[in-house]
Each structure stands twice: as structure tokens, then as C-alpha cells.
Design goal:
- 83% of the residues lie in helices and 0% in strands.
- The longest helix is centred in the N-terminal third of the chain and has 30 residues.
- The chain folds into two domains: 183 residues, MFS general substrate transporter like domains (Growth Hormone, Chain: A, Up-down Bundle), CATH 1.20.1250; 181 residues, Up-down Bundle (Growth Hormone, Chain: A), CATH 1.20.1250.20.
- The radius of gyration is 22 Å and the shape is globular.
- The protein has 17 helices and no strands.
- With 414 residues, it is mainly α.
- Helix 2 runs parallel beside helix 4, helix 3 packs antiparallel against helix 6 and helix 5 crosses helix 14.
- One of its GO terms (molecular function) is transmembrane transporter activity.
- Keywords: Membrane, Transmembrane, Transmembrane helix.
- This is Putative glucarate transporter.
């Protein structure tokens, strides 16, 4: 892997994101327990989650603007330290209002971390390896979510406060790693000066926000769909399995592990295939398979079969996220990456905000089966969009152009 990605700065970002992922996993593992001990009602817990998502949505675009003006490094350091402040003070807050403010700024600092880290990675990675680079980025976060709960379980006997403080310490270490190890420039290693000077002025110049959005619209559609799906499934799939399928509560705990396992095993493969054959094309295939797996839950009754379906859903739908980032990096000039990433994360957060209330309404009104079918329908709609806007993928455009070039050259060959 070091030969495929020789730029040590990319590995520095991975290290920081892994530490942050562990911090996320450590704090989130005890969040509901801590809030319940404070006497916070479940409805209020939902509003705290809304405050977190609102922070992401509100500051997604400003995060891109800041990353563009100041560069990814200072924003990444500041955002990691800001997250440290939020998570470390959280266990000492006792009212719903102060907890909501902390969760709001948790979202603000988190989206700044994501935008600046993704901008740094996309600007430094070569065009033919962006899918691979971003798949390792997704794996870094996912591994953190695996390790974090384990660490939290070790610390819980000392009290939930210790888990939040440990998360703050990990985020601080991540900030120090970025501060001392990450170069301030965004130039990718191995990129020659000739390549930079020969790049057209049009590609180097910043585009309007509308132009940028139109370039990355399919990537935004992908991340919206995934945010909507992820937030809905985490809340309601376990309830559906318990109420409609008769699955024991302790068995439903295994469901997220199968989903994460599928993602961890296949995302790098999906990234490599996307780099070679086109990111949007691979996303379309993954959307078809994953959406089918979601719909199949309505018919499945055996728990082992459900675990297989969840594994396949994780292997496909979770792999769409890094591929959509890679597509965004390919179609967006470096000068516009910060703003493009802010649009991307804004759509992700919007999906997270809209998914749970709509899915919850459908669940209560018509049952969990209808809720799952509507999620499968959403992925079907995404697949349709990838067909309509297939030309957003540069490799598709190149394939379309090649036959016409061959036809033009044919008389000359004769």
C-alpha cells in the first residue's frame, strides 16, 4: 500500500481520522446511557441528534469556504481541538439546552474535520487512485467505530465521564498529529511542476457555486441517500426485527457488526474497480445490489439469512460513500474541492435529518416492511439518477467519445 500511496501526508490524515473515529466510537457507545442517567427522555434524545445534524448542515458550506481560503491543515487542527472541547465538557453539562448546544457544535466541528480531511486527501491523491484513497479513508473511520466501543466498555466501570474524557484525549492527539506531521501545501507528491504549469487556467480558476454543485450533483445524491438510509436503519431496523420477525434483542446487537464487516472487506476492492471502470458506473451496480438486499428483508424470516443480507448491504451501500467522494475529486478542480466537499457533507447531513422522521412516520403508520421498501425505493431512484446523469462520470464520457473517434478514423485506415 505504501507503494500505491507514497505521499506520507495522506497517511497522516488517515492516522488522525482513525484516532477521531475511535473517539467517536468511544463517546457514542455511552451517549444514550449517559443521557438516560441524567433523566433525558427518548424524545429529547432525538432532538439532541437533530441538533448534531443541524450543526453539520449549517456549517457545511462555511467549512468549504474556510478550507479553500486558509487551507485544510489549520481548519483540521482547529476543528479537532473544537471537537475535543465539546466532547470533554459534555459529561459536565446537566440541562437539555446546554447539551443541545454542545451537540450542535459537535456537528459544526465534525463537518469541518470531514471537509478539510477530504479536501486534503482528494487534492493530494492521483486521479487514477482517488477511489482507493477514499476507500481507505472510510475504513479508517470504520475501524475507529469498532475499536471505540471496546475502549468504552473497558472505561465504563470508571463512569461514563471517563469515556468522554478519553474521546477528548484521542481527538487532541489527532490534532497534534496533523499539526506536526501534515504539510501545509496541498500539492500531491510526485506531481511534476510541468504538469502544474501546463494545467489550463480554466481548471485552476475557481468556478461559481452553481457550477461546482452541478459537477458533483450525483456524488451529492449518493451521500444524501446513504445518510438517509444509515440514520433510518440504525434507529428502526432493530425494532423491525424484534417486533415483526421475532428476533431476540441480544441478537440484533450483531446486525451493525455484519454491516460494518461487509464494508470493511469490500470498500477497497470497490474503490480499485471504480478507479479503473468509472466510479459512477460502479456506484450504480452497488446501488442495485444493495437496494435489492434492503427490499429482501421484508421476505426473509431466518436470522442467518438476514445477517447475510445485512453483510451484502454493508458491502455495497457503505462502499458507495467513498466512491462518491472519489468521483467528486475527479470531476472537481483542486481550487474548488473545499466548496464541493461542503456541498457533499451538507447533503449527507440533510439525509440524516430527513431519514429518521420520515422512516419513523412510515413505520408507525404502515409498519416496518413499508419503511424498508421505501428505503429500497430511494436507492432505486438513485440508480435512475446515475443512468440519467451517466455523463457525469469522465470514464463514461471517454467511452462514448472513443467509438465516434474510431468511426472518424476508419476511412483513413482504409
Amino acid at each position: 500500500m505504501l507503494r500505491r500511496i507514497p505521499d506520507r501526508n495522506i497517511w497522516t490524515v488517515y492516522s488522525a481520522i482513525l484516532l477521531l473515529g475511535i473517539a467517536y466510537g468511544t463517546s457514542l457507545a455511552v451517549l444514550s446511557i449517559h443521557l438516560d442517567a441524567l433523566g433525558i427522555a427518548k424524545v429529547a434524545m432525538g432532538w439532541l441528534a437533530f441538533a448534531f445534524g443541524l450543526g453539520i448542515v449549517s456549517f457545511s458550506v462555511p467549512a468549504g469556504i474556510l478550507s479553500k481560503k486558509l487551507g485544510p491543515k489549520p481548519i483540521l487542527v482547529a476543528a479537532l481541538l473544537g471537537y475535543t472541547l465539546c466532547v470533554a465538557t459534555f459529561p459536565f453539562l446537566g440541562t437539555l439546552a446546554t447539551l443541545a448546544i454542545a451537540r450542535f457544535f459537535d456537528g459544526v466541528f465534525s463537518v469541518n474535520v470531514w471537509v478539510s480531511a477530504e479536501t486534503a486527501l482528494l487534492s493530494r491523491s492521483q486521479k487514477d487512485q482517488k477511489g482507493f484513497v477514499m476507500s481507505l479513508y472510510a475504513i479508517s473511520i470504520a475501524l475507529g467505530y469498532v475499536v471505540g466501543p471496546i475502549l468504552s466498555r473497558i472505561l465504563v466501570p470508571l463512569g461514563t465521564t471517563s469515556a468522554f474524557l478519553a474521546a477528548g484525549a484521542l481527538a487532541t492527539v489527532a490534532a497534534l498529529v496533523v499539526l506536526f506531521k501534515l504539510d501545509g501545501s496541498s500539492k500531491a507528491d510526485g506531481e511534476s511542476a510541468h504538469a502544474l504549469t501546463s494545467e489550463s487556467a480554466e481548471k485552476r480558476a475557481a468556478n461559481s457555486a452553481a457550477t461546482i454543485f452541478w459537477k458533483v450533483k450525483t456524488a451529492c445524491a449518493a451521500t444524501f441517500s446513504y445518510g438517509y438510509f444509515q440514520a433510518s436503519v440504525v434507529l428502526f431496523l432493530p425494532l423491525y426485527l424484534i417486533e415483526a420477525k421475532g428476533i431476540a434483542k441480544n441478537q440484533t446487537i450483531l446486525i451493525p457488526a455484519f454491516f460494518a464487516g461487509g464494508m470493511l472487506l469490500t470498500s477497497t476492492v470497490a474503490g480499485l474497480i471504480g478507479d479503473r471502470f468509472g466510479h459512477l458506473f460502479v456506484m450504480r451496480i452497488l446501488g442495485i445490489i444493495g437496494g435489492t438486499m434492503v427490499a429482501s428483508f421484508v421476505l426473509l424470516s431466518a436470522f442467518p439469512a438476514m445477517c447475510v443480507a445485512v453483510f451484502v448491504a454493508g458491502a455495497t451501500l457503505a462502499s458507495i460513500s467513498p466512491l462518491s467522494l472519489a468521483l467528486q475529486g475527479v470531476v472537481t478542480p483542486e481550487a474548488d474541492l473545499g466548496l464541493a466537499n461542503s456541498f457533499y457533507n451538507a447533503f449527507y447531513a440533510t439525509g440524516m435529518l430527513l431519514g429518521p422522521p420520515i422512516s419513523g412516520f412510515l413505520f408507525m403508520r404502515w409498519g416496518g416492511g413499508t419503511m424498508l421498501l421505501h428505503l429500497a425505493g430511494m436507492w432505486a431512484l438513485f440508480v435512475v439518477l446515475t443512468v440519467i446523469f451517466a455523463s457525469d462520470d469522465p470514464r463514461y464520457a471517454a467511452r462514448r467519445a472513443r467509438p465516434s473517434e474510431d468511426r472518424d478514423a476508419e476511412p483513413m485506415l482504409r
